[in-house]
Amino acid sequence: MSSWPPAGVAVAAPLLLGYRVWPGVLIGALLVGVAAGAGAWSILSIAAGNTFEGLVAAWLTNRFANGRRFWERPADLARFSVLAGFASPLISPPFGVVEIGSHSFPFWATDASSFMVCWLGETLSVMVITPLAVTLSAEKGRKMTRRQLAELAALLTCLGLVTSVVFGPIAPAMQAHMLPYLCLVFTVTIAVRLGSRETAVATLVMGIIAFYWTWRGHGLFANLAAEKAMLALQGFIVFSGGTNLAVAAVVRQRTQALQALQTAHALLETRVQQRTRALREEILERKRTEAALQEAEARYRRLFETAKIGLMILDANTAQITDINPFLMRMLGYTRDEVLGRAPWEIESFKPHAHVCRGAFLTLQKTGYLQYNCLVLQAKTGEETFVEMVGNKFEANGAEVIQCSLRDISARKRAEQALQRANDELDQRVKERTEELTAANRSLNAEVEHRREAEKSLAKVLDRLVDVQEEERKRVSRELHDQMGQDLMALRMKLKRLREHLALAPTAQGQFRELDELTTRIGTGMHRLAWELRPPALDDLGLATALRRLTADWSGLSGIPSDFQCLGMEYCRFSSKVETALYRVTQEALSNVLKHAQARHVSVVLERRPKDISLIIEDDGKGFDPARVLGSYGKAGRLGMLGMQERVLLVGGKLTFESGEGPGATVYVRVPFSDADAQLDAVEGFEV
């Protein structure tokens, strides 16, 4: 019992899917045995042999024949044929033959070997089915052109006709003269023209047609027994399939070699072209470089000849002058022939500096750079020239040279000398002027100090004047309040008694009442005048209470609403000078509002801060220009604001007016206070 074609599938499956598919191979072999009608033990033994055979063949192919790519190279195909096609099928027949012999089943009716039949059947399956499955899987992405499809169809048709003629009943008389290898013409053509995949298909088509007609008793092997005919046909198909695949592998390898050769040739051509272009560019670049070098040399020569500084070229080894430009020749008064081939210190102009020149030459040989800011050279005519020299060592035309650049700085030196003389004269003048300014400054400082002392004296006088004024106001206020008040009260009492004791006419009674009212108005006016001169509340109750009463009385007299706010000042007292100054500023500000502002409301805010006392008087009347008003000093109505400033300055404070073209005006007063003020207040008995 031969498992053809399942044996080829058993080898292809592990190659394509891996060894893990062996259960599927085993089940497939069992199904083939069941379909053949064999016994259970025969089915199991043959299925086990076929499965083991497929795994061994796949392992040998992977190990020695490049795995599933065995069909690409002739050497790998040969190893596959030997190991998988001929060696591994030797595993399966012993299982089948032993099982068949144990049941006395006459597998062959002739003297053919059962082992040979099974082995050759397994070989045929591996050599035909396995390459077909592997190539179809490997080249599934390769598409054929219409021309290739037409060519394949024509060749398969011809192959089918020839195979039918050789193995079928179409021309029995001709079969004795026809060889079965005529079929190889078409299979080899397919191998050469189309590839391994199409070759495997052609081998399968030829095998199916040959098996069909041979099984029916026709064809080239019809004169043999059926078993021997099948055995001979199997050998023919195995040989044909191996030959066709070998030809396809050789053609494929040759095609790949040709493609690789063409690729290498194209790459070589590309590299040759690239190198040719590179060489062409290098040549062009070299020509451009040579042209640029020639141009640079010409430019250098023009610059050398036309330069407005002296240039001298020396040999870096011998110090001999090899070239000199016209400017330097005119500067020194020598011709080119007089200086060429000589060292600089051998020329009369440089002889006074011979040791300097020799040292400079040695320094240039070592460091390659040297600079002298000033050298005095004597021309051939005897005229002295100041020069600045810079030396550089460089390579030119493969030899080291030294270039000395000599710049004529005589004009600059003369200018420097003139400038130095001017500087000396200027220094002398500055010195003299400085002495004059020092004397003037001492005189000015003395005058400033005198003015400062005068200002201090004036400030003391003003301070004392304010104190005297306040004391005088206080005295006058008390005199008005005490003496005049008592006199007016006595006058009223006498007028009242006189009116009570005398029987007067109604007209006289009316005159007495008018006198009484006049006395009352005089007392009220005198009381208000005494209050304005020096309010007793300022001395007795403090600044906050005095300002509150001042604001309230002012609103009552003027009819303009006002409000007073006191922050942190209810139980605090300051020096009398500070309180008096703030009170007088508020008094003057309210007076100005009444006279000029036409305000509808006034606010007064008194606040104690950590470092100063703040007083703000604000109204909503018409504004004014503070700079213009303060600038008109001495005119009528302008002394009030200046007086406010003087009072604030005397206590060390600052007064600011804020107003403009729009409505409203604000007066800001800041008066600082310190621990010294607190001590002064404590001495005077006030609570701070």
Q: Work out the helicity level.
A: 55-70%
- Count of individual beta strands: 10
What is the subunit organization of this protein?
single chain
Helical region count? 21
Overall average pLDDT: 77
Share of residues in strands: 5-15%
Sheet with most strands: strand arrangement: 2-1-5-4-3
Radius of gyration: 68 Å
Task: Give the uncertain stretches in residue-range form.
Answer: 96-112, 678-688
- What overall form do the CA principal axes indicate? elongated
> What distance lies between the first and last C-alpha atoms, to the nearest angstrom?
133 Å
Structural class: alpha+beta
Largest sheet: 5 strands, antiparallel
Report what the structure shows:
- The chain is an alpha+beta fold and 688 residues long.
- The chain has 21 helices and ten strands.
- The strands form two sheets. It has a five-stranded antiparallel beta sheet with strand order 2-1-5-4-3, sandwiched between helices. Strands 6-7-8-10-9 form a five-stranded mixed beta sheet, covered by helices on one side.
- The longest helix has 92 residues, at 410-501.
- The model is unreliable at 96-112 and 678-688 (pLDDT under 50).
